[in-house]
Amino acid sequence: MKFLEKKRILIIISGGIAAYKSLDLIRSLTKLQCEVKTILTKGGAEFVTPLSISSLSKNKVYSDIYSAENESEMDHISLSRWADLILIAPATSNIIAKMSQGISDDLATTVVQASNKNIFVCPAMNVRMWEHASNRQNLEKIKSYNYRVIGPFSGEMACGEYGDGRLADIEYILKELDNFFKFKSSNKKLRAIVTAGPTQEYIDPVRYISNRSSGKQGYEIAKSLFNNGFDTTLISGPSRLASNPNINLLRVNTAEEMYKKTVENLPCDVAIFCAAVGDFKVKNLSKDKIKKNNVLKLNFEKNIDILELISKNNNKPKLVIGFSAETSNLHSNSKKKLQNKGCDWIIANDVSKNDIGFDSDFNEVAIFYKNENISDEIISKNYKSVVADEIVKRVINQLNLI
Ligand code: C5P
């Protein structure tokens, strides 16, 4: 845990039964010589007392936004500026809902809203609350603000029910924080390129052929790489999605343009080719708008294969990852692709399955590795943002080994 040592951690304790575990969390952090300050919400104070918290953190416990004593200190600003990181543990569905809407009606939510620091959220709640559609949407919302979510774990709950919703184990939370500081220090100079979205292949100056790709998975991967400290370039075909302003977003239309922008942005450490590039382009593209006729006959030729060309480029990134959309024979097709294109990983999804892949918020993927020593693995159905985080976790592990 050497990267977490001596950091300044601001813990927000909200009102769930798991609040008692935050005492253990504080104890473990102080053992790592972290300085810990805490904000206790009104609900949190029903479960743990300020006295037990301050005895462990050796610091004052903050709770009141309207305190004359603290007003001059501007707690809602200074606490966040002081911290290296803000950890909300446990985070109830209520505080998650408030954060998702920008409601700042107490010190905890005001600090979060006014923060310029990375925010980690450790949800803990009853399984039904966790699975409720409103909670899932609120989580997606806070993730889009670049808050990171740790857990929850699955298991028996204080209320006697069983399922997802337990606060992640303290050791696991500490490991995630340690990893964050590790990547933050080591990935600063690591560069990533991600391609996303469809391409448009022109027929004439006003018409094109394209495909149904939304770009969601690629945008989520770019976001996750950026959140992990990568200097990230996102080369996107036409898409309505918004991207973080700190990600270098380059918009293109055709496969040729996408290839050119990719080459221009080499070298990089990892390139992830998520785009659904048109496999064919129109031969003898018409310079003028084609006149209306009874029939239109078009000739197509094979488009350039960006993934293959970059995998075989002298400036090949350390790690080249391709995507593959399949409707059958996922395993054999992906293995073939690894060989033919020369990339390091193929991440395959079965687009014939309902509710995943194209334009969906969900995805389920299988990762196939060139290195035969690593076994293929499945990231089971989840939000594309979660799938992206899982992929990026593996990218970071791999880059640390190269
Ligand atoms: O061969 P297939 O199209 O299934 O391969 C998919 C992978 O190759 C994706 O990573 C996609 O971005 C990339 N690709 C490409 N250039 C093409 C076609 C696909 O880079 N012309």
Explained architecture:
By secondary structure, the chain is α/β, with parallel strands linked by helices. The strands form 5 sheets. The protein has an 8-stranded mixed beta sheet with strand order 13-12-9-14-17-18-19-20, sandwiched between helices. The protein has a 6-stranded parallel beta sheet with strand order 3-2-1-4-5-6, sandwiched between helices. A two-stranded antiparallel ribbon has the order 7-8. Helix 1 runs parallel beside helix 2, helix 4 packs across helix 6 and helix 10 crosses helix 14. It folds into 2 domains: about 180 residues, 3-Layer(aba) Sandwich (Rossmann fold); about 210 residues, CoaB-like (Rossmann fold, 3-Layer(aba) Sandwich). The chain has 14 helices and 20 strands. Helix 1 links the parallel strand 1 and strand 2. The protein binds cytidine-5'-monophosphate. The site of cytidine-5'-monophosphate has 15 residues, from helix 12 and strand 17.
Explain the layout of strands and helices:
Layout: E1 8-13, H1 19-31, E2 35-40, H2 50-57, E3 61-62, H3 68-71, H4 75-82, E4 85-91, H5 93-101, H6 107-113, E5 119-123, H7 127-131, H8 133-144, E6 148-149, E7 153-156, E8 162-166, H9 170-186, E9 191-196, E10 201-204, E11 207-209, H10 216-227, E12 231-236, E13 248-251, H11 255-264, E14 270-273, E15 280-282, E16 300-302, H12 306-311, E17 319-326, H13 330-341, E18 345-350, E19 362-369, E20 377-383, H14 384-401
Parallel strand pairs: 1-2, 1-4, 2-3, 4-5, 5-6, 9-12, 9-14, 12-13, 14-17, 17-18
Antiparallel strand pairs: 7-8, 10-11, 15-16, 18-19, 19-20
Helix pairs in contact: 1-2, 4-6, 5-8, 10-14
The structure holds cytidine-5'-monophosphate.
Cytidine-5'-monophosphate binds at residues 195, 255, 273, 275, 277, 279, 303-307, 322-324, 337.
